[in-house]
């Protein structure tokens, strides 16, 4: 398996103007029927037409949504082999904590000499599982608050 270079520092940080433009583009493109290949016309020299498979188009729209929400983005190939430092950066955790997770068997990895390598796919899957678990826990806490009468839908926003 070939290693693919990945550097979290290369994540693209959008400007305020780009955030607005990406949000507008994401809203417009999300209305496009992406069940078939998409054909885009590039204005300028010759107005070239580019054909995008629907999966690629949907990935671009998702990236525009993230940029439109002000988030930095980077592309990580799912087959990329990441170092523990790269995986920890992607998961927004310390490298020692990630090592504990690996040793506990929470994430698969392989040894290359004395170095641990993780597949980008496995790291992203783990992150999705953790995000879902976090969302479920927060929803459970909100439900308990509501049952206990601690949640007020009509509370004033400007408390003194």
Domain tally:
2
SS-derived structural category: mainly alpha
| Shape call | flat
* CATH architect. name of the largest domain: Orthogonal Bundle
First-to-last CA distance? 60 Å
The proportion of strand residues reads: 5-15%
Runs with pLDDT <50, length 5+?
A: 1-5
Q: Largest sheet, if any?
A: 3 strands, antiparallel
Q: In which range does the helix fraction lie?
A: 40-55%
CA gyration radius, whole angstroms: 21 Å
Element order, helices and strands?
HEEHEHHEEH
Q: What is the strand tally?
A: 5
Would you give an account of this structure?
The protein starts with 15 loop residues before the first helix and ends in a 13-residue tail after the last helix. It has two domains: 66 residues, no CATH class; 72 residues, Multidrug-efflux Transporter Regulator, Chain: A, Domain 2 (Orthogonal Bundle), CATH 1.10.1660.10. β4 and β5 form a beta hairpin. α1 packs across α2 and α3 crosses α4. 47% of the residues lie in helices and 11% in strands. It is flat, with a radius of gyration of 21 Å. The strands form two sheets. It has a three-stranded antiparallel β-sheet with strand order 3-5-4. By secondary structure, the chain is mainly alpha-helical. It contains five helices and five strands; from the N terminus they run αββαβααββα. InterPro entries: HTH_17, SinI_DNA-bd. This is Helix-turn-helix domain-containing protein. It comes from Sphingomonas hylomeconis. It holds the Pfam family HTH_17.
